[in-house]
Each structure stands twice: as C-alpha cells, then as structure tokens.
Write a structure and sequence with these properties.
Structural class: mainly alpha
Distance between the termini: 59 Å
Radius of gyration: 21 Å
Strand order of the largest sheet: 1-3-2
Number of strands: 3
Order of helices and strands: EHHEEHHHH
Amino acid sequence: MSEKSADAFRNIGEMAEALGVRTHILRYWEEQFPMLKPLTRAGGRRLYRPEDVALLQTIHRLLYQEGYTVKGARRFLTEGGAKEVPPAPAPAPAPIQTPAAAFDFTALQAVRDRLASALAAA
C-alpha cells in the first residue's frame, strides 16, 4: 500500500492494487460477504476502514492461498473462523523465478535414472 497511515481509509483502487485483484472482484466480495460493508460516499465511492482492510486481506488469503471457495470462505468467516485466524499481512510481491530455479534438477535426474533402470529391467 501507499504511504498512508494504518488508520487511513483506502479507496477501492488502492485496495485492488494492494491485493492484486481487479476492482470488480472487490465489489463482488461485498455482495458475497455480508460482513464486508465499506463506507460509501457521494457517487458510490467506497472507502475501506482498517477493519475492512483486514477482512479483505483475510478473504483474499482464504480464496487465493488456502483454496477456499467463496461459499466456504463465507461459512468460515460467519462461523467464527476469523477469530481463530488473524489477518495476514499485505501480500509481498512474489520473487521472479527463472525456469531453472523452478525445478530441482537432482530430483529429476534421480527419477530419470530410476525410469531408465526400470525400462532396462523390463
């Protein structure tokens, strides 16, 4: 997020950028999660309070990192799961991985050797 204090309100664009989602996703979440109620100003502009920011971060983590469905995340939050799991900090940018960094070549070579042995024995 930007240089705002932790108590500052965030607009929908700032929240979308911080979470790495499009603004229509946040509007959809407002429909699907009744506990998410940002302040609405003239012209329908949304302002997210610090507690809304924490809830959005929790929703994002449940959906994108923990693999919940929208229905499952809603159930988790309404049944008190939010009290058990503190909101995650804002997501850090993912490190850029080169194709070589994405694979463990020693493990791949071991699999190749085992396959070669199996084929030779067959």
